[in-house]
Amino acid sequence: MSPGDELAPLAVPVTRTLVVAAALASRDYQDVHHDPAAAERAGMPDVFMNILTTNGLVGRYVTDRLGPAATLRKVAIRLGAPSHPGDTLVLTGTVVDVDADTAVIRVTGDNDLGRHVTGTVTVTLGTPA
């Protein structure tokens, strides 16, 4: 692995079940993540994915691509366009830095509305057991 290497993309279908179940699993009971009427009152066309779900998907993306020996050390993200049921979130990543057993990956995620997430993930690269 070297700086500039690109990770294979991951397409995540954003379903109503994903949005609602992940919000509840992360104990985010804010109504805009499970009640379409509340989301509409907030100016959205439908419920939308919460930041904790996005954070988990970013972590999953990197560890899926780097293998079971990779350990997340830091995930720092910034949200942009919302992700609603019916969207497809496409995550991509580029290796920014590699130092001994540590790598930094820049991750972006786009949907039909634009850039949903940008961030960096720091991982320790281990040796598979």
- The secondary-structure class comes to alpha+beta
Strand count, sense and barrel status of the largest sheet are: 5 strands, antiparallel
Q: Bin the helical content.
A: 10-25%
Average pLDDT, rounded to a whole number, is 94
* Share of residues in strands: 35-45%
Uncertain runs are none
N- to C-terminal separation? 19 Å
Sheet with the most strands: spatial strand order:
1-3-4-5-2
- Strand runs, count: 5
Q: Work out the radius of gyration.
A: 16 Å
Name the overall outline: elongated
H/E element string?
EHHHEEEE
Number of helices: 3
A few lines on this structure:
This protein is α+β, with helices and mostly antiparallel strands and 129 residues long. It has helices at 16-25, 36-41, 51-66, and strands at 6-13, 70-79, 88-99, 102-111, 114-125. A five-stranded antiparallel β-sheet has the order 1-3-4-5-2, covered by helices on one side.
